[in-house]
Known about the structure:
mainly beta
Amino acid sequence: xxxxxxxxxxxxxxxxxxxxxxxxxxxxxxxxxxxxxxxxxxxxxxxxxxxxxxxxxxxxxxxxxxxxxxxxxxxxxxxxxxxxxxxxxxxxxxxxxxxxxxxxxxxxxxxxxxxxxxxxxxxxxxxxxxxxxxxxxxxxxxxxxxxxxxxx
Length: 152
């Protein structure tokens, strides 16, 4: 198995802290793409959608590039608890889809070009999931896609 854990893409995080790229995740279009276990994420060197390999094939209810997160995603201070900040959205879903062996969801911010679309994070499903003319729903954790403790 190539995907063994979830994580935040470090180069994108560094760019956000250094303000070398404007990545207001609540004000731009955030997408979620699905990848199979053939993708080997490198959280230290991958930073653009073009770095993804083994994205689920276009067709049968899935479009290459994934789908925009519905219901404006947002950062919430004090969630899931005091001293934390969470990024959350509605659960993305692909209705009437036939998807084989999706292993992870990858969040990214689109600029309109795969070579500049910034990868944000990967959420490992733990086991591959498939649909046969059904709905594949990525259930976002109750605490959001990701949250950070900002109080030691």
